[in-house]
C-alpha cells in the first residue's frame, strides 16, 4: 500500500445517494477485523446499517451525525467489555481507522463519529440499534459515495516530533 492512500483518507460528510454494495460493506468489515488487538482478543462487534429509517434515527441520535440521514450505510464499532475490559477502546479505535482507510481505498467517502466516552451519545445509539449494556459503543462510521472532493494532506507538524527524548 502506498502512503498516498493514507494521505487521501479524508472525512467525507456529503454523499451522492448511490448505494454501497454488500461486497463493499463486507470488505470494510474485513478491514476492521484485520486491525491489531491486544492479546489478539478481538473484542469488537460491528453493526452494519443500511436501513434508511435506522440511518435517519442515528442522525438524530448523534449531535454531529446529520450526514447519516444521507449516507448509504453506517458501521457502528462496538467492543465487548467483558472480553477485554482494559483494551477494547484501543482495539476498536484501530478497527475504526482500518475501516476508514479501506473506505478510501474502495473510493467511498466516510467519516468517524465519536461516541465513547460521551454517555448521552452511547445511550442514544444503544437505544436505536439495540446494543446490549455490556457492549461499549466506540464510534459510528458514516459511509457513502462521495459527493465532495478533498485534496490529500499529511498534516505533518515537525514541532510535534521529539527525537530520542522529549
Structural features, described:
- The chain is α+β, with helices and mostly antiparallel strands and 166 residues long.
- The chain has one domain (16-147): NADH Oxidase (3-Layer(aba) Sandwich), CATH 3.40.109.
- The chain contains five helices and four strands; from the N terminus they run H-H-E-H-E-H-E-H-E.
- The chain has a four-stranded antiparallel beta sheet with strand order 1-2-4-3, sandwiched between helices.
- Helix 2 packs across helix 4 (88-105) and helix 3 packs antiparallel against helix 5.
- The longest helix is centred in the middle third of the chain and has 18 residues, at 88-105.
- The two termini are 31 Å apart.
Kindly summarize this structure in a few lines.
This protein is of the alpha+beta class. The protein has five helices and four strands. Helix content is 34%, strand content 18%.
User: Can you tell me the CATH superfamily?
Assistant: NADH Oxidase
Oligomer class: single chain
- Count of alpha and pi helical runs: 5
| N- to C-terminal distance | 31 Å
Unreliable spans: none
How confident is the prediction overall: mean pLDDT?
A: 97
Number of domains: 1
Strand content: 15-25%
Query: Architecture, according to CATH?
Result: 3-Layer(aba) Sandwich
What would CATH call the class? Alpha Beta
- CATH fold group: NADH Oxidase
Radius of gyration: 16 Å
Strand ordering within the main sheet: 1-2-4-3
Number of strands: 4
**Which class do the helix and strand fractions yield?**
alpha+beta
Helical content, roughly? 25-40%
Characterize the largest beta sheet: strand count, sense, and whether it forms a barrel.
Answer: 4 strands, antiparallel
Shape type: globular
Amino acid at each position: 500500500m502506498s502512503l498516498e492512500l493514507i494521505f487521501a483518507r479524508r472525512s467525507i460528510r456529503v454523499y451522492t445517494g448511490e448505494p454501497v454494495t454488500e461486497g463493499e460493506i463486507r470488505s470494510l468489515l474485513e478491514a476492521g477485523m484485520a486491525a491489531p488487538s491486544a492479546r489478539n482478543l478481538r473484542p469488537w462487534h460491528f453493526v452494519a446499517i443500511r436501513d434508511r429509517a435506522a440511518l435517519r434515527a442515528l442522525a438524530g441520535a448523534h449531535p454531529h451525525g446529520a450526514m447519516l440521514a444521507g449516507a448509504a450505510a453506517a458501521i457502528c464499532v462496538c467492543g465487548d467489555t467483558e472480553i477485554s475490559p482494559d483494551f477494547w477502546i484501543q482495539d476498536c479505535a484501530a478497527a475504526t481507522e482500518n475501516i476508514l482507510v479501506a473506505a478510501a481505498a474502495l473510493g467511498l467517502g466516510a467519516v468517524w463519529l465519536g461516541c465513547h466516552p460521551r454517555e448521552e451519545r452511547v445511550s442514544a445509539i444503544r437505544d436505536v440499534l439495540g446494543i446490549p449494556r455490556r457492549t461499549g459503543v466506540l464510534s459510528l462510521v458514516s459511509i457513502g459515495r462521495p459527493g465532495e472532493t478533498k485534496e490529500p494532506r499529511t498534516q505533518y507538524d515537525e514541532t510535534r516530533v521529539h527525537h530520542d527524548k522529549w
